[in-house]
Automatic annotation (TrEMBL):
GO terms for molecular function: calcium ion binding; Notch binding. Disulfide bonds join 92-101, 181-190, 224-233, 240-250, 317-326, 333-343, 356-365, 394-403, 432-441, 470-479, 508-517, 546-555, 584-593, 622-631, 660-669, 698-707, 736-745, 774-783, 836-845, 874-883, 912-921, 970-980, 991-1000, 1029-1038, 1068-1077, 1106-1115, 1144-1153. This is Putative neurogenic locus notch-like protein 1 isoform X2. Residues 66-102, 107-145, 155-191, 193-234, 236-274, 287-327, 329-366, 368-404, 406-442, 444-480, 482-518, 520-556, 558-594, 596-632, 634-670, 672-708, 710-746, 748-784, 810-846, 848-884, 886-922, 966-1001, 1003-1039, 1041-1078, 1080-1116, 1118-1154 form the EGF-like domain. Gene3D superfamilies: Laminin (2.10.25.10). PROSITE patterns: ASX_HYDROXYL, EGF_1, EGF_2, EGF_3, EGF_CA. One of its GO terms (cellular component) is endomembrane system. It is a single-pass type I membrane protein. It comes from the Eukaryota. InterPro entries: EGF (IPR000742), EGF-like_Ca-bd_dom (IPR001881), EGF-like_CS (IPR013032), EGF-type_Asp/Asn_hydroxyl_site (IPR000152), EGF_Ca-bd_CS (IPR018097), Growth_fac_rcpt_cys_sf (IPR009030). Keywords: Developmental protein, Disulfide bond, EGF-like domain, Glycoprotein, Membrane, Notch signaling pathway, Repeat, Signal, Transmembrane, Transmembrane helix.
Length: 1165
């Protein structure tokens, strides 16, 4: 249902639309989530879902037949049906409601609840009227309310209780009251709203074209069908007025339109439905079934029932399960843990909670409560404990649940009507005031026993007195006085009051009517005035105000307005209906031709000529310089004048003016203008004067009409993709990426050209790197690390490790010139120190100092680090090494005519001398523009002033300039870096690339939007920017993720693996290490060869060449040459350091006892 709220004096109009969405009733609108608990809301959702599922099939039928749903006449009791694309609506007659106008209201019973009081009986006498049957002997009002008397014994007014509703006037009477109702209400108390929707006597409804009428207070409102509007729905809407058909012709229909599409087009042409959550379809009429899971997966688990809701679903779990999808088993209470209580599942903790029976407590209700522990019994009472509570046994004279009540029978005042209580043992005695009796003084003495009330008055007994309720028409303490209802003069407008029995009647004078003569008779209701006369209502009569041309009591006669001969001076009168018209003779005008025409009143004479009126004519007397019948012709003063150098002559009043060609000036354009006088060429450009123009010869690095544009030498990308181009004045500089060199970064850098490998190491050039092959005693990236063969101190018995054959020499580590860039090397024992030159740092002075770290550039300048220094790119208006000098824009003297120039930041201001104005004070102020000269004198403009002259050539007329020549505001060249476009009263600068501002004086910061991505550094240029990209990124905005492995950075058969952010990692083959696998693994770095053994580094490890006397993998074993039994012939081998010695057996000799000693022959002598 769609609820439409129309505001007509604070009432609601409910329109039910059925078909597209579910219907709502008033109850659903009144339900507040704050007043319904969770269970109620859950049951309400389930019931709504059940109703929605039952209507689902019918809803689809409505949608499929949406073009003709009213054809079945679904609206009852005279309701009007209206089709909608998503359903239909029933507009019900007044008083009838419901989606199909099926609810007919039952008129309320005026006796329910009963308005009659004091036990009176209410009887319904009509649809909305009643009467009260009062008890006998009552002096009462209309509803049997008792009539009260004031202090004087007189009856009070029936109107004191304001019985008349809705602002009605209450008229008091002896037996009741009368309500004078305002417009729109009726009934005995003006409680009924008059039905303003009732048809006229002719049967014409208030709302036309099927509109529904809604009754208001003294008014009505129409709810029109689609296609109609107006107070009574009398106007038809033209739905084609808004041109809803985009590519076709619109045909207006009743309550809609139809688009006849052109060839090649189709569609509704009027709306598109954006569905809310839970609905879909062309008209959002299909409720999405959230219970139908994707791929047949059930939304609710463990046999639960799924209820489809609007945009969601709800699972009704089977017993023993819980959770959003009934996926959690609830079994905590299966073991019956509660001893004396009831177990409840806890869905939050998946546990249980015991609710104990009265008299028990504990987590499992296993403990018995002792209520007497609190000792709640008072006044020494005895406490008896039992399951679920306790009982107090009270001592004498006390009572109550806790024995807290003292038995004082007078404590609570048992004696009524002011009686005095006397407490006694076990009872009390009341001493009553006069007029009362009984054990508790409850009985009132009846003062009415003597029947004091007269004339049928009813006596009401009171405390110590009585009151008489008088019958209608009587008053007084005992109802002894007759009431005159006319005493208050209730009749209005001089009506005569006639007193009756408990009432009155008004005899109204002529012209009035009503109960109290409150209404005046409107004699104009019959429209007695004819011929559109205006009727004025009078008392008992009327008066007609006739239109002009009519007369009579009812304006029934037409008048002859020409009978009085109103036209003067021979004018002819023409009688009209209710008027007349005068046709005037020549020379006269006016309503009665009474005015003489002044032919000069229209000011026919031009150019300040004098007009003389005549008889039907006029004559013009022309001033000097003009002629013609109306002095409209100006004499041609250019007839004998020649404007030189192509100038044009413009005639003026009694004078002329020459408009000179560009480049000339003077009265007759006789003087040539020097366009170079204002120094239009900027940035050192040379100005060449031309006829009406100039030309600027720019120095290198600038171009443009005024040399205002800086030539961007980087526009052609001379540095290619291997470097960043920095625009300079008249040139450019390439900042090459790592690995490239040359003026244009066109060559790959030879990293070996600086001989980085020390101590005779061999350098191998790589891309953006190098590797050193070191001699056996050196290692490190630059072979700077010395491999000391004596590091393990093989010298025994306190011997000192020295270099040389006998380790007697100290090594000078500076001999290999390890420091880069001509840095100074300072030798030390087993090391050295490099003293770097300015601009270099690092242990070997191999790294550049970032000279921009201290932010040396001021005033917003950009620092660009160089090899051993830096350069500052300054903002517009600043210069100097550190951008600390404000450029003096006044140094070229741009201000003319003795003006004072005030320098600013990237700008200047000209303070003009008296008599001049303009951006550069180039315009001479014409002091004659204000016409200061009087009495025909001519004004001649001078510099910073004016002079007066009485030259005859100007004295004849008031000569003013014609303003025919547009001032060239671009003549002073106000635009710094752009072209000037002259306008009327100003100029406009069309800035060159890279500049902005009113005068194109500001360089656009192209880096303000941070165009460089992925952490790139932006360098602002003239009309552009340059991005210095982080490693791994390239492109104009560093937006391209350059694959880091493309350049094969991993050496020596290493494997390159790329990572995010343009990074890479090299997995080196065996024997190599370093970020790029450029370092050969030096297995000898740990000095594994002992005893001065020589370590030889190999691809997969090391090899030791042991010194004399040692052997083993690490030369850790003393060489034992006797192992091989070098001594022959039973010689004995003795081991020595680095050798052996053989003790030969007898008869043998030699190094290995290999030589037999021949026997020695002795002489016989």
């Amino acid at each position: 249902m769609i609820l439409i709220l129309l505001s007509f004096s604070a009432f609601l109009v409910h329109v039910h639309i059925v078909g597209g969405t579910r219907a709502l009733d008033q109850q659903s609108l009144d339900d507040s989530p704050d007043l319904v608990n969770h269970q109620d809301k859950r049951e309400e959702r389930i019931e709504r879902q059940r109703q929605r599922q039952l209507r689902k099939q019918g809803k689809r039928t409505n949608i499929s037949n949406r073009l003709g749903q009213c054809s079945s006449n679904p609206c009852l009791n005279g309701g009007t049906c209206q089709n909608y694309p998503f359903g239909y609506s029933c507009l019900c007659p007044y008083g009838i409601s419901g989606p199909h106008c099926e609810v007919i209201p039952v008129p309320p019973d005026p006796c329910n609840p009963s308005p009659c009081v004091d036990g009176a009986t209410c009887t319904r006498t009509g649809v909305d009227s009643f009467s009260c049957k009062c008890p006998p002997n009552y002096v009462v009002g209309a509803t049997c309310e008792r009539v009260t008397l004031n202090i004087n014994g007189a009856r009070t007014s029936f109107c004191d209780s304001n019985p008349c509703l809705n602002g009605a006037i209450c008229i008091d009477g002896t037996k009741g009251f009368t309500c004078i109702c305002p417009l729109g209400f009726r009934g005995t108390r003006c409680q009924i709203n008059v039905d303003d929707c009732r048809r006229s006597p002719e049967g014409i409804p208030k709302c036309l074209h099927g509109g529904s009428c809604m009754d208001l207070i003294a008014d009505h409102a129409c709810i029109c069908l689609a296609g109609f509007y107006g107070k009574s729905c009398e106007f038809e809407v033209n739905e084609c007025a808004s041109f809803p058909c985009l590519n076709g012709e619109c045909q207006d229909l009743t309550g809609g339109y139809q688009c006849v599409c052109n060839v090649g087009f189709k569609g509704h042409g009027n709306f598109t439905c954006n569905c809310k959550r839970g609905f879909e379809g062309e008209f959002c009429g299909i409720n999405i079934n959230e219970c139908e899971g994707k791929g047949g997966v059930e939304k609710c688990k463990n046999g639960a029932t799924c209820l489809d809701l609007i945009g969601e679903f709800e699972c009704i779990c089977s017993e023993g399960f819980g959770g959003k999808r009934c996926h959690r088993k609830l079994d905590a209470c299966l073991s019956s843990p509660c001893v004396y209580g009831i177990c409840h599942e806890d869905s939050h903790t998946e546990g249980y909670v015991c609710r104990c029976h009265p008299g028990f407590t504990g987590i499992n209700c296993e403990e018995v409560l002792n209520y007497c522990e609190e000792n709640s019994c008072l006044n020494n009472a005895t406490c008896l404990n039992y399951h679920g509570g306790y009982h107090c046994v009270c001592p004498d004279h006390f009572t109550g649940p806790h024995c807290e009540v003292d038995l004082d029978f007078c404590k609570h005042g048992p004696c009524l009507n002011g009686g005095h209580c006397e407490n006694k043992r076990g009872h009390f005695t009341c001493h009553c005031l006069p007029g009362f009796g009984g054990s508790d003084c409850h009985r009132n003495v009846d003062e009415c026993a003597s029947s004091p009330c007269q004339n049928g008055g009813r006596c009401r007994d009171e405390i110590g007195k009585y009151t008489c309720d008088c019958q209608v028409g009587f008053t007084g303490p005992n109802c002894q006085e007759h009431v005159n209802e006319c005493a208050q003069q209730p009749c209005l407008n001089h009506g005569r009051c006639v007193d009756g029995s408990g009432t009155f009647y008004c005899e109204c004078p002529h012209g009035y009517h009503g109960i109290i003569c409150e209404h005046e008779i409107n004699e104009c209701w019959s429209n007695p005035c004819e011929n559109d006369g205006i009727c004025i209502d009078r008392v008992s009569e009327f008066e007609c105000i006739c239109r002009e041309g009519f007369h009579g009591e009812t304006c029934q006669f037409e008048s002859d307005e020409c009978s009085s001969q109103p036209c003067q001076h021979g004018g002819t009168c023409e009688d009209l209906k209710g008027a007349y018209e005068c046709q005037c003779a020549a020379g006269y005008y006016g309503r009665h031709c009474e005015i003489n025409i002044n032919e000069c009143s229209s000011m026919p004479c031009r150019n300040n000529a004098t007009c003389v009126d005549g008889a039907g004519v006029f004559e013009c007397y022309c001033p000097s310089g003009f002629e013609g019948v109306q002095c409209e012709v100006n004499s041609d003063d250019c007839y004998n004048v020649t404007c030189e150098n192509g100038g044009s002559c413009f005639d003026e009043v009694n004078g002329y003016k020459c408009q000179c060609a560009r480049g000339y000036f003077g009265a007759n354009c006789e003087n040539e203008r020097d366009e170079c006088s204002v120094k239009p060429c900027r940035n050192g450009g040379q100005c060449t004067d031309m006829v009406g123009n100039f030309s600027c010869s720019c120095i290198a690095g600038f171009r443009g009409r005024y040399c205002e544009q800086n030539v961007n030498e980087c526009a052609s990308s001379p540095c290619g993709i291997n470097g960043i181009c920095l625009d300079r004045l008249g040139g450019f500089t390439c900042m090459c990426y790592s690995g490239f060199t040359g003026d244009l970064c066109e060559m790959e850098a030879d990293e070996c050209s600086s001989d980085p490998c020390l101590f005779g190491g061999t350098c191998t050039d790589l891309f953006d790197s190098f590797t050193c092959s070191c001699p056996p005693t050196r290692t490190g990236r630059f072979c700077e690390v010395f491999l000391d063969p004596c590091a393990l101190n093989p010298c025994r018995h306190g011997g000192r490790r020295l270099h040389g054959k006998n380790c007697s020499q100290e090594v000078d580590e500076c001999l290999s010139s390890p420091c880069f860039g001509n840095a100074t090397c300072v030798d030390s024992i087993a090391g050295y120190q490099c003293l770097c030159n300015p601009g270099m740092t690092g242990d070997l002075c191999d790294a550049r100092v970032d000279n921009c770290l201290s932010s040396p550039c001021g005033n917003g300048g950009t620092c660009i680090a160089l090899m051993d220094s830096y350069t500052c790119r300054c903002q517009q208006g600043f210069t100097g090494t550190h951008c600390d000098i404000n450029i003096d824009e006044c140094h070229q003297s741009p201000c003319l005519n003795s003006a004072t120039c005030e320098d600013g930041v990237a700008a200047y201001t000209c303070h003009c001398a008296k008599g001049f104005t303009g951006l550069h004070c180039q315009i001479d102020i014409d002091e004659c523009l204000s016409d200061p000269c009087r009495n025909g004198a001519a004004c001649i403009d001078a510099v910073a002033g004016l002079t007066e002259d009485n030259l005859h050539v100007y004295a004849q007329t008031d000569s003013r300039p014609t303003c025919a020549e547009n001032i060239d505001d671009c003549e002073a060249h106000p635009c710094f870096y752009g072209d000037c476009v002259d306008q009327v009263g100003g100029f406009k600068c069309v800035c060159g690339p890279g500049f902005t501002g009113k005068r194109c004086e500001l360089n656009i910061d192209d880096c303000s939007d941070s165009p460089c991505q992925n952490g790139g550094t932006c360098v602002d240029q003239v009309s552009g920017y340059v991005c210095i990209c982080n490693p791994g990124y390239a492109g104009p905005g560093c937006s391209l993720n350059k694959h880091p492995c493309v350049s094969d950075p991993c050496l020596n058969d290493g494997t390159c693996v790329s990572h995010e952010g343009g990074q890479y990692h090299c997995y080196c083959s065996q024997g190599w290490s370093g970020p790029n696998c450029e370092i050969e693994v030096n297995y000898c770095a740990s000095l594994p060869c002992l005893n001065c053994g020589r370590c030889i580094n190999e691809l997969e490890g090391f090899r030791c060449e042991c010194g004399p006397g040692y052997t083993g993998e690490t030369c850790d074993a003393i060489l034992d040459l006797c192992v091989n039994q070098p001594c022959l012939n039973n010689g004995t081998c003795l081991r020595e350091f680095n050798g052996f010695m053989c003790l030969c057996a007898e008869g043998w000799e030699g190094l290995h006892c290999e030589t037999s000693i021949p026997p020695r022959l002795e002489s016989l002598t």
